[in-house]
Amino acid sequence: MEQARSDLLTVIAGIGGLLIIASLAGWLLQIRLSPNGENAAIENLNDRIRSWWVMVLAMSLAFVGGKTGVLLLFGFCSFAALREFMTLTNATRADHWTLVGAFFVVLPLQYYLIWIEWYGLFSIFIPVYVFLLLPIVSALRGETRNFLIRVAEMQWALMICVFCASHVPALLTLKIPGYEGRNVLLIAFLVIVVQLSDVLQYVWGKLLGRRKIAPALSPSKTVEGFLGGTLTAIAIGAALWWMTPFAPLLAALMAGVITMMGFFGGLVMSAIKRDRGVKDWGHMIAGHGGFIDRLDSVVFAAPFFFHLTRYYWSIG
To answer: Running DSSP on this structure, what letter comes out for residue 146?
Structure first.
């Protein structure tokens, strides 16, 4: 337990050090290139750095708070993300009680199942029972206009914002021999690798990007950026193997899986935003858009990371 706390403090200190360096760099760039705030790119950069300070502080406090802190943090994130998602759907007054059920029954119950570590139910509660039962509530209101669209949007919102997101704190429930008390480091590994992959893909794309992958969905994503960011993130994952129960090679493979899923998750969520005609899911986080804009890569990667890790140790 003491070793786990020491490792966690090392991770937090390392991230804090990187943010200090980034803040100093942003401050110097502002003084030299944007003293009056006329450089939009630098102002956006500094907004992002300030937002990262807030998010890292919240994550650090949650980690220190243990299981309760992490569940509360991601429960709040799920609520905020679900709210953002539902503002862009075709939900009508006929879906009022369906929405009440989603926010105040399904969401807290999903996180409660993780709290009591009932894997058998938490893993199928939303994709099976909620998918079948929640549309009944809307059907009983008798409103048939766009019924299939409304139901599908509700189900997809719950899958992304609640079911997939809840797999992040669910990592705390894994029973890994010799890794007791250190599961919070798995969450740190997942978030660090996926988020750094996003940043590195953007940086490599700006440096070397030529061929766009899906210009209609995300014009900034390029083949060169994807390859450079993915390979760098895999190398970082291998270097951070000590945070995980895996050997360096397996840590690198896991980093590759979650990086790939994070990338494709970003594409899928970009497609939904383009379909809805919006640039960001929300404006709650200055410089970052909404909660879904920060969670999209992580929530797609989390279920794969959770189940692959669980399966590996169940047969190991």
So the answer is: T
Instruction: Provide the 3-class DSSP secondary structure of residue 212.
Output: strand
Residue 80: other Cβ atoms inside 10 A: 19
Nearest in space to 191 (alpha carbons), one of 62, 95, 301, 54 = 301
8 A C-beta contact, residue 54 and residue 73: no
CB 29 within 8 A of CB 45: yes
pLDDT of residue 42: 67
- For CA atoms 54, 59, 65, 71, the dihedral sign is positive
Instruction: Select the highest-mean-pLDDT range: 66-70, 88-92, 255-259.
Output: 255-259
Contact (Cβ atoms closer than 8 angstroms) between residue 313 and residue 176: yes
Q: What is the pLDDT of residues 46-68, one digit of tens each?
A: 776 777 777 778 878 887 778 89
**Statement: the pTM of the whole predicted model exceeds 0.70:** yes
CA distance 271 to 277: 10
The pLDDT assigned to 40 comes to 64
**C-alpha to C-alpha distance for 179 and 96, rounded to whole angstroms:** 45
Structure tokens at 84: 């953002």
Torsion of CA 261, 122, 61, 21, to 10 degrees: 0
Name the strand (E) or helix (H) holding 114: helix 107-115
DSSP label at residue 81: H
- Please state the separation of Cα 233 from the chain's center in Å: 16
Place of tokens 């429960």: 75
